[in-house]
Amino acid sequence: MATPIGNLGDLSPRAIEVLSSVAVVYAEDTRVTRRLWSAFDIHTRLERFDAATTTRKIPEVLSRLAAGDDLALVSDAGVPGVSDPGAPLVAAARDAGFEVSCIPGPSAAVTALAASGLPTYAYYFGGFLPRKEGKRQRVLESLAELNATLIFYESPYRVVKVLEHLARVFPERRGAFARELTKKFEEIRRLPLPELAAELAARETVKGEFVLLVEPPVRP
Ligand code: SAM
Fold first, then answer.
1. Could you say which DSSP state residue 142 is in?
2. How many domains does the chain have?
3. Which segments within 49-173 are labelled E, that is strand?
4. How many angstroms separate the Cα of 166 from the Cα of each of 132, 189, 211?
5. Which of 33, 41, 84, 109 is the most exposed place for a label (fewest CB within 10 A)?
6. Which of 28, 33, 49, 83 for a ligand 1 pocket mutation test, highest count of atoms within 8 Å of Cβ?
């Protein structure tokens, strides 16, 4: 189940109904999800399901499903499994023959793409780029010919470095960043990548959550 990426108003009535009616909600961090519980008066039992406990927890979740319980899975924000824990559990549940469906909602990648003003006819979501520059370079080179808008997630600590790297690899392309989507200080900038990187690098502080985007090699 998708949950808000900042603005609690983005939790749909159907999501609230399902979260309130299942036997257990598995959450990446129960403390984070509890904020939704208080805001929407939800009382469903919460259990942890994060990257570290995935392997151990899968058999437990499957046996609950086998006992006939309806269960939900959420991550801290956005769609579980999208740069978040969850995909192996969905695969295991499907492999075991259980029905799995998704209650859709916000995901930072598509929200950023829609607001960026960059082409949307095709996009490639690359999650988080490798931290090591050499590996990152190889990934970016492998994507150079792809006729799609590239989308990456990045933390505020590395975003300037990664944006500068994108500007070196694709100096002739426009890029965009989307910061703090759906939140009070939401900001979306689209500029030629070298200018975009210089603008962010010149800031005294760089805070918040970022999505980075790069336009395709050829403009339509
Ligand atoms: N599952 C989430 C989704 O569907 O978008 C992504 C989780 S991933 C661990 C967290 C990253 O998503 C952040 O580092 C940032 O790149 C991006 N992100 C999440 N919320 C965001 C927001 N409100 N504004 C901009 N980027 C966001």
1. H
2. 2
3. 71-74, 123-128, 149-154
4. 14, 15, 13
5. 41
6. 83
Q: Check residue 75 and report its DSSP letter.
A: -
Structure tokens at 109: 């990648």
What CATH number corresponds to the domain at position 132?
3.30.950.10
Structure tokens at 142: 């492998």
**Same-domain status, 56 and 136:** no
Q: In this structure, are 143 and 178 located in the same domain?
A: yes
Mean pLDDT of 169-198: 98
Query: In angstroms, what is the span from residue 128 Cα to ligand 1's centroid?
Result: 10
d(CA 117, CA 65): 43
pTM score > 0.85 for this model? yes
pLDDT in tens, 56-105: 999 999 999 999 999 999 999 999 999 999 999 999 999 999 999 999 99
Exposed/middle/buried for 11, CB within 10 Å: 0-12, 13-18, 19+? buried
- Give the number of C-alpha atoms closer than 13 A to the C-alpha of residue 76, restricted to the C-beta side: 7
> How far, in Å, is the centroid of ligand 1 from the Cα of 174?
21
Which of 52, 34, 51 is closest to 43 using CA atoms? 34
Q: Range of 122's domain? A: 108-214
- The residue contributing the CA closest to ligand 1 atom 16 is 153
Letter for the amino acid at 95?
Answer: D
Q: Which atom of ligand 1 is nearest to the CA of 80?
A: 1
Alpha carbon distance 90, 65 (integer Å): 12
Can you read off the two tokens belonging to residue 211? 């999505």
